[in-house]
Amino acid sequence: MKPRLIILALALIAGISFAGARASGNPDKKQARAEKKLDAARKVESLLDSKRYAFVPEKVLSELDRSRYINLTSYYEFDVTPDLIVSLLPYYGKAYSNKYDRPDKLSALDFQSADFTYSKTGRPYGKEKAVIRIQTKNTTNDIQYQMVLEVFDNSSAILTVNSSMATDLVFRGRITEIPDENPYIKSE
Hints:
It is a single chain. The protein contains two helices and ten strands; from the N terminus they run H-H-E-E-E-E-E-E-E-E-E-E. The protein is an alpha+beta fold and 188 residues long. Strands 1, 2, 3, 4, 5, 6, 7, 8, 9 and 10 form a ten-stranded antiparallel β-sheet that branches. A hairpin with an 8-residue loop joins strand 6 and strand 7.
């Protein structure tokens, strides 16, 4: 009986020490993970500072149905450059104006504008986020849009689109570089 008790005690001690070593983790892996996260945050910050990036939405939430996000199955984007805003976003909801009815456009949020204001506050590091406010006007129908883009350190972002002529939309997606093959934005 005593040998079994001794073996059981040794096994218990070995198990506790193994679990403790595993819980402390490898400091090199933790440091590498932290450096990788910091590099990603720096990349996002440099994209935002350059004012040349694309927001690619993955989901949309309409003001009409605040209970669930709709997964987007097609490719859409919202491009920001220093001199041009290009919105190629879908629209879900009610429009309170017939100015949205244009056969040449896919949606009420399909427009380009060189007439906009841009302001950025905060930095996307850690638990902080960068908040970008854009006020623009769709030049084809003179509808004003207020857009708020919240960007986090892992490049995820939330774009809220407000307009007095339509219901609000909230898009969830990612910040990326503007693709070279984008026909609307000329590469510098």
